[in-house]
Amino acid sequence: MAERALSEEAVVAGLQDIRLPEDAPGGVIAEMLAGAGLGLSLALLVGLALRTFAPVRGPAAEAAPVSGETARRRALLLELRERRPEVYARLRRDLYRPGGLPDVAALETELARDA
Question: Which range marks the domain in which residue 39 is found?
Answer without folding.
Answer: 23-53
